[in-house]
Amino acid sequence: MDRFRNEPYLLINLILAGVVILIFIYSGIFSPENNDYPVVCVHEKLTGKQCASCGLSHSFSLIVRGEISEAYNWNVYGLRVFIFFAAQLLMRIIFSIFYLKYPETNNHLITYDIAVSVMLFLVCFMPFIETLVSQFHLVYHKGYGFQNPLIIHTSSACL
Amino acid sequence: MEDFTSSTGQTSGQPPVSTTKQPTGQNLGVAALITAIVTFVLAVIPCVGLIAIIPGIIAIVLASVGLSQASRNDAPRGLLIAGLIIAAVATMISFSQIFVAGRISDKFKNKWGNDFENVINDVQENVLNELEDANVSIKIESNGEKVEINTSVNKKNREQQLEELEETDSIRKDTLVRKK
Questions:
Q1: What per-residue confidence (pLDDT) applies to B82?
Q2: Which member of B5, B20, B47 has the closest CB to residue A43?
Q3: How many C-beta atoms surround the C-beta of residue B99 within 10 A?
Q4: What is the Cα–Cα distance from B109 to B106, expressed in whole angstroms?
C-alpha cells in the first residue's frame, strides 16, 4: 500500500482503472430495454437532430451484453470508444506490472504509456474531435444555417 | 516529462523507501492529473462535454493549490503542471462546446419561436375554418338499435338559425307587449 502512496504513477494507474471499471458498471446497470439513462443529448433537444455521440450509452450497454451488431446501430463510433476504454484498462494493469517488475525502465515505460495512450485516444476519438471542430466552424464562421427538420415535419403533417 | 521516480527519492533499480517523506502538493497533483485526464476524455465527446467544465475547474483549482504549496516548499512540480495544462485545455474545449450550444440555442430560439408561432396560428386557422363548415354525423348502436344524428354546423346555416331564432323571439316579445 505504501508503494502506491509513494509512486504517483501506480496510484494514477489504479484510479484510472477504477474509473474505467465504473464506466463498465454504469453500462451494465442501465439497460436499453428500460431506457433510463441519466444523460440527455442537449443537441437533439435544441435542434431535433442527432449528434455524433447520441446513443453512446445504449451502444456501451449493448457491447457489455455482447450485442455488438445492435450496438453499431445505436452509435457507429460506440465500439471504437469502448475499445479505447477496454484497452486503457488492460494498459493500466500491464504497465503497472511492468513498472513494478522492471524499475530500471520506469521512465521509458511512462513515455511509452503516454505515447500509446495519446495515439489510441486520437484514433478512437477522431470522429468526435472532427465533429467538434466542424460544429465550431459552422457556428463561428458560417452560422448554424441548416433547416430545422421539426418544422418541416410539422408543416407536412398539417398539409 | 515528470520524473515520477525522483519525486519519491528513489533511484532507478533500487527498491522504494517507504519512510521517504512525500513532496508537498504531490497528492494534489495526482488528484488534479486524474481529474484533468477524465475531464479531457469527457470534453471531447459532443454534448457530454458541456458538463466537463465542472471537473475541469476542480482540476485547475487542485493544480493551482498544489503548485502554490510546491513553490513555497521548493518541491517537484511536474505532475501539477501536467495536470494544470491538461485541465486548462479540457476546460477550454468544454467551454467552446458551451459556447456552440449557446449560439445554437439563441439561433433556434429566435428562429423557432417565430416559426412555431406561425405554424400554430396556421393550424389554428385551418382547424377553425374546417370545423365551421363541417358536417357532423353521430351514430349510436345499442342492443341492435341504431340511432343516427346528422347535423351540419355550416356557417350559413347557423346564421339562418340565429336569424330565425331572433325573429321568433321578437314575435314572442311583441305578443307579450300586445297582451299588456
A1: 93
A2: B47
A3: 13
A4: 5
